[in-house]
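Entry 12.
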Amino acid sequence: MDEGVLGLIAAAVIGAILLGVLLLQPPTVYIAKPLPDEILSVPARVVLKGLPEGAEVGARLRDARGRVLAEKALVFREGRATGLLYFDLPTASTGYLEVFSLGGGKVLARIPVRFAGERGTWVRVFFLDSGGKLFPAVRRISATPRVATEAVRALLAGPTLPEERAGIWTAAPAGTELLAISIAASTAHVVLSVPDPQAPALDLFASQLERTLTQFPTISRVEIRYVRP
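Predicted 3D structure (tokens):
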């Protein structure tokens, strides 16, 4: 066979092999936020990109001494996965944000971060256990006069990964957002954006929200209004 023809065949074979290798390689996840060495306050907002729709990974904050401060499962929707990490007090001023596979725990991406020197304050947020009963979880939030607002945001951030694995869940529909909250005459007026204001799960979520807010002595009653996005 002509050497030129052999060369073309060899090039085609090599090209096909390289294409197959590329196709077999899994997509790469990368951390869009926070940036490397960014100073994190609680909660830390995490934005991931690079994986297909519906892919689920874990995000973990560790301090430099290896202590796990927070772990949360994140799901890719419309090209990215986002979430808030309410993390414990670090034992060092620096640490890492890791993205890992939920199956085997393999670290897929990792960046160094720093922690703001804030102590913050602790509140309870109420999720649901496997039997549908209210379950109190503790969250650290930034020190703020708007503690009720931050407690609701922590509630909407959902359970941590260890809590989910223990059967803890939330009835808040995916995509629920806090639009406004005001307190007058011991009543908290809350406006939430939800995909379906008639969703049956909102009755359960209302109990979570009411219990979370009435932990504060200035609130004895909660009125909720749901609106579409």
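Annotation: The chain has four helices and 13 strands. The CA atoms of residues 54 and 76 lie 5 Å apart.
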